[in-house]
Amino acid sequence: MAIEPLEIKPTMSMDRRYWLVGLVLVGGIFISHEFYHFTKAEDVAQAQIRFEERAADRLTSVEQSIVAKQEVLRSLVGFFEGSQNVDREEFKLFVRSALKRFPSVQALEWIPRVTASERSTIEATVRKEGFEDFRLTERTSDGTVITAGPRHEYFPVFYAEPYNANRKDLGFDLGSNPNQRAAMGKARDTDSLTTSAMIEFSEGGAIALVYAPIYRTGQPNETVLQRRQNLRGFARAVLNIEQMVEVPFKTRRTLKSPAGIDVYLYDDAAAKGQQLLYSHRSRKRANSEGFVLSRANVESGPRLSVSFPVGDRTWSIIAKPMRSDFGVVVSLMAWSGALLPTLLAMVLAAYIYTLFGQSHRLEKEVAERRQAEEKMRTAKKEAESANQAKSRFLASMSHDLRTPLNAILGFADFISNQYLGPLGVTKYKEYAEDIHSSGELLLALVNDILDLSAIESGKLSLAKESLSTKDFVMECEKFIKQKAESLGIDLTTKVPSDILPLYADKRAAKQILINLLSNAVKFTPEGGKITIGVTATNGHHIIEISDTGTGIPADKIATIADPFVRGESNPHKSQEGTGLGLAIVKSLVGLHGGDFDIQSTVGKGTTVTVKLPGRANQLEFEIPKTPAPGPAPI
């Protein structure tokens, strides 16, 4: 609405003029006040964005540093599972490169399960290896090392690297310590990594112990009883908590410059008041003043945090700026902008007209700035969401990519350096087979990621053609039939001989069917049954894959085909892979203009239905309403 000019008549009383001048001045002062605070708020918002970018880089680096140490332990488990017997020298050579790459790993150890009847034989064997004083030991309540007392089983430190720094632990029975015995028991019964609470030393520093169970090769370990009976021992990593946090700050180029950010690492599973594992003080601090360690104070005010699993515990990292206002200093421009409206109001008090116009422009500018601030908040939320997705993807992929790659590097190092003697030693063939299988796994992982990337970026085009439905299905069945028979699974195909041809991209359709069959075989127990059924009705081909497998919980079906959703929370996804199989199937079906459905009952089985449009429907969809001149499309 336009503001009508205000005419000041010569006959206007002095009181009225003072009132108008006073109103203009008050308005100018108010605008100055608002402009100052808005400008400062904008500076703080910009500083917060910079803080979150720098904090995210620090949190991701520390998280990756900690997660990588768990992968070293998993690769050690894979090494033991790939060999019937690992001697002391093989163990030393295998862990050497990992210890060199990760200085925060203080020790990697092999802890076998030794029964009471095996104790004397084990002690005698180690003494013959040159460890003349070797014996199974334990500690009394005052810390004195004594010979281990009689028990039905022992868990001694058998191999420990680096040896010189850990030789005092050789032979120590971890089963004699109630806390360590409980951690090992949980790892054994759950077939997963377990992590101890923080252990502090009197000379300073703290460590965390991570255990990974190793079972006898070829023996079942599906139930708790089977795991207890077939336990071979444990791999243990001793992690230096301080170095896991500090090494990224010293080695990564982007973290070497101080940013005025304090970093706190917590163990969420620990008792309240004992959760702080380590705190990194910003190098911009001259002293410890204001470096508050109370978690309640750390979690108040601006901060950025991330949580992730470490064995069976959850650790959290919190990045907090040194100052709640991010150290923003009001700029000269902000002060000038704040004073300017007041000065203009004083100078232009007689020109009411002009003042109103200026006020309108300022209000518009404030509105635009508030809109810009809202956009920045939205961008911040999107950045947080993207950062969380990246963290989930890294956690999802870290194990799958690192485990086979560590195995490839370790075994290749053995062969290339001929540690076991010249080429021709039988064990080299085992290592080469492990390298080949690990390489195939890595290739499959990369192919899945590239396929989904091509689909989502719209770079995958379909070359549809008429396919003999029966021949196509039998070709896919032949691909999976041998694996099903080797697992004792009955594979049945029901395709009418006179069914209409399938109109689809052959490669994509083959990938759809083989992915579904592979999933069915993977989750169908021995003696189970898989049925492939194909029908054609109402211009569509309907393909059904039914199995008598483990089934999917009802609350998981909605997200079963989402990318990167996998693990125990999603039992229908592969334990080795990106979790993209069903996501690729769903995307390829969508590209064909078809439908994808899953019906499942836990303990009874799963039926996946794929509905693809027939040739007539495809042509109707592809032909434009006004065909271009030229030959009709085929």
Could you tell me the mean pLDDT?
Answer: 79
Number of helices: 15
Q: Biggest sheet, open or closed, and with what strands and sense?
A: 6 strands, antiparallel
Low-confidence stretches: 1-12, 567-576, 619-634
Coarse morphology: flat
Main structural class: alpha+beta
**Rg of Cα set:** 34 Å
Helix content: 40-55%
**β content, as a range?**
15-25%
End-to-end distance, in Å? 63 Å
Write down how many β-strands occur, each being a DSSP E stretch of 2 or more residues.
21
Labels describing this entry:
about 45% helix; disordered N terminus; five-stranded mixed sheet; about 625 residues; alpha+beta
Describe this structure in words.
This protein is of the alpha+beta class. It is built from 15 helices and 21 strands. Helix 10 packs antiparallel against helix 11. The model is unreliable at about 1-10, about 565-575 and about 620-634 (pLDDT under 50).
In short:
The chain has 634 residues and is of the alpha+beta class. Helices cover 47% and strands 19% of the residues. Residues 1-12, 567-576 and 619-634 have low confidence and may be disordered.
Question: Helices and strands in order, then pairings?
Answer:
Elements: H1 14-81, H2 88-101, E1 105-112, E2 114-115, H3 119-128, E3 137-139, E4 145-147, E5 153-154, E6 159-161, H4 163-166, H5 178-190, E7 194-195, E8 199-200, E9 206-215, H6 224-229, E10 231-240, H7 241-251, E11 261-267, E12 276-280, H8 295-298, E13 304-310, E14 313-321, H9 332-347, H10 352-417, H11 426-456, E15 464-467, H12 469-486, E16 490-494, E17 502-505, H13 506-522, E18 529-537, E19 540-547, H14 581-591, E20 595-601, E21 605-613, H15 615-622
Helix pairs in contact: 1-7, 1-9, 1-10, 10-11, 11-14, 12-13, 13-14
